[in-house]
Amino acid sequence: MENGIALEKKDVNRGKKGHFLLDTWKRMCKNKLALIGISIILIQVILAIFAPVLVAHDPYKQDLASAKLSIGTAGHFLGTDNYGRDMWSRLVYGARISLIVGLTSVVLGLAGGVLLGLISGYFKKLDAVIMRIVDLLFAFPGTLLAMLIIAMLGTSLVNVIIAISIWSIPGCARIVRGSVLSVKNQEYILAMKSIGASHTRIIFKHILPNCTAPIIIFATTRMATAILSCASLSYLGLGAQPPSPEWGAMIAAGQDFMWEAPHMAILPGIAIMLTVFAFNVVGDGLRDALDPNIKFDS
Amino acid sequence: MVQFIIRRFAQMVLLLIGISFIVFMSMHLAPGDPATIIGGPTATKSDIEAIRADLGLNKPVLVQYIDYMNGLIHGDLGYSYRTGQSVTEAITTRFPITIKLAVASMIVAIVIGITAGIISARKPNSMLDFASTTFSLVGVSIPNFWLGTMLILLFSVNLQWLPIGGLNSPFYTTEGFKELILPAITLGTSTAAIIARMTRSSMLEVAQADYIRTARAKGVKQRKVVWVHSLRNALIPVLTVAGINFGGLLGGTIITEQVFAINGIGRLMIEGIASRDFPMVQGTVLLVAGIFVFINLIVDLLYAAVDPRISYD
Question: At the N or C end, where does chain A have fewer CB atoms within 10 A?
């Protein structure tokens, strides 16, 4: 009998979770901009995954005989760069780099930020110390912090990922800490404490799931920042190095040929803008959909 | 209020010490021996040792940090490994250019941002609102180095209306003003987008407040309701956002200076990073971070002064 009740409860919970996700999705569907954003992201993910199948040319292969071909040339519908490399191939492989850098740095930043936020919010004694460190990291403008880390580690794409991850930590830690503080004194947490549940269990099993909404929103908008920062750092020559088809590095290379081949600088910029726009509007959409304070028409 | 200011100043000093420690340690932990960099490939072991002793690099790290702080207090930030020039001197020469760019960008951002926000909020869901909202979304998504490149392509390369780069002439001359237009728009656009968004939401929120309804019920004209009652209150959070973003703009100058070949602090920093010129990187990073912290403090104080609901506790 007891088992039966337990099972029923579990099913009810599962149903609620399903409802929550479905409701969130339904709210997202009402937001046309968010849907456009999701579509752009999906297309990019597909392009990034199936890049070798979808492009006819090697993005690194030089062909000086067909250098700086303009958009619409047969065989190279987005033209070629100053080394005769196909622009479409480079843009598609660039999407791969941007998404990988964005995703990796956001995941690493979240891992650090969530952990610090949980510890800081839950353990009062550690709160002051952790938050002062976070304040210290916040005292640097983001680009500057990333540059400082790159100055320390050297210029490479991996170091850009590390730099963006560290830059993401303080923001995430603050958000998670705020959520923990609002949850940790609720009755069900006190009940867990009173029955002797361990801190680890309370934190990861009962508090963390209640912080997921702000974390998801943070991660989505952070993807936009990470992609933009990666492009900016590569543009400055501090990230991906030639001949990598990273979008920021492509703009930097294209800048020298603006008179003869403006598409070399224009196309990667449009790619960055679309990607960042997509993640920004999806982030906004998620914020609206996950925020219970906002009322939606039924 | 006085106590609040003193407390915030004390916090700022502690923060600045923390920043200086982080920056110093980052450079100290960076791979590559500064003495080898200065000595070059032809330096012998004894030459390198002599350079190390001269720079005080053979002392314990903490002593080196204290020496550095001592120099910092006296305005001595060390010497560039690359050029041998005094870092303080290099910064003093380049800093006014960066400030000029940051201030001009902030003016662009405030003028465009607040205007777009007000237009948007006055007629929500209209075509103008749609245009303004689109500008806000695109403005925060556009990479500023690309925007700069496109502006150069259009206004300098194709139309030949504005110069490509520089900021060499004083801003009050026609040439200097022309040089400033493209970099200021490039750097100010994303902040303008953020301010437009903030102004719109803040104005819409204020428009629903009781005192606005009361003003309308009393028969106050629409123009006065918007410009006097709504805007004044709606601008409080907008000013905070603008203030905080001014610090961000200083960070953004690093990239914009590179696009327009402007010899400011940002370029000095990039050159320092590329050539592993640690004293230069240290000095420039400290300066920008220090100003960022200082501006945040001013914003905090202004916010507390403007909004009487803020507690000083």
Answer: C
